[in-house]
Amino acid sequence: MLDPILTKPWHYLSAWFQNDDPPFHTAHERPFWDYAAHEPQLNNFFNEAMSSDARLVTSVGGTGTLAKAIANAFPHLNCIVLDLPHVVAGLQGSKNLNYFAGDMFEAIPPGDAILLKVYPKFFLLVT
After folding, report:
1. Burial category of 69 from C-beta neighbours within 10 Å (exposed 0-12, middle 13-18, buried 19 and up)
2. Which residue has the higher pLDDT, 20 or 123?
3. CA atoms within 13 A on the CB side of 82
4. Of 39, 118, 17, which is closest to residue 86 (Cα–Cα)?
5. Could you tell me which of 65, 69, 60 has the C-alpha nearest to residue 101?
6. What is the reported pTM?
7. 8 Cβ partners below 8 Å, 6+ apart?
8. pLDDT tens, position by position, 62-112
9. Whole-angstrom Cα distance, residue 83 to residue 100?
10. Residues 24-27: contacts with CB within 8 Å, 24+ apart?
C-alpha cells in the first residue's frame, strides 16, 4: 500500500539517526500505535497485513488468524492472542482460543511457548 501515511516516514530516516524518535513518530507527531488506534482504515489495513502472512511468525497476534489455525489443528492446546485493546476489541474466542488485550512491551501472559511475528522493516519505522 503506497498510502502517504506509510510512505512519509521513509523521508525521515536520516533524522532518526540524529535523534531517538522513530521515523513514523517524526512524520506524524505520534507513535504508529496511537495513529492506528484513531484511524480505522490504517488499523484494518495493518491487521489484514498481519493476518495474511503465511510464515510461522506472529507479531503479538493481530486478529488471531495464525492462532486460530493452531488451535484448530491442536484442540488440546490453549492459545492466547495478545494484542493492543483496539485490535482485539470485539473478537470472540473459542473453547481453546482466548484474546487478551495488552501491550507486549509491558507484559506477556505466561505460557509454555511464545510465538512472536516480527517484521524488521516495519519495526524500524515504528519503534
Report:
1. exposed
2. 20
3. 17
4. 39
5. 60
6. 0.48
7. 27, 28
8. 788 888 888 888 777 788 888 889 988 999 998 888 888 888 788 877 776
9. 7
10. 24/125, 24/126, 25/126
The CB-based long-range contact list for 68-77 (8 Å cut-off, 24+ gap) reads 68/94, 68/97, 71/96, 71/97
Judge whether 115 and 55 are in contact, CB under 8 Å.
no
Mean pLDDT (the chain) is 78
DSSP secondary-structure letter at 10? G
Residue whose C-alpha cell reads 519505522 in the numeric block: 125
* Per-residue CA distances from 54 to 59, 68, 88, 113 (Å): 13, 13, 20, 19
Percentage of the chain with pLDDT > 90?
A: 18
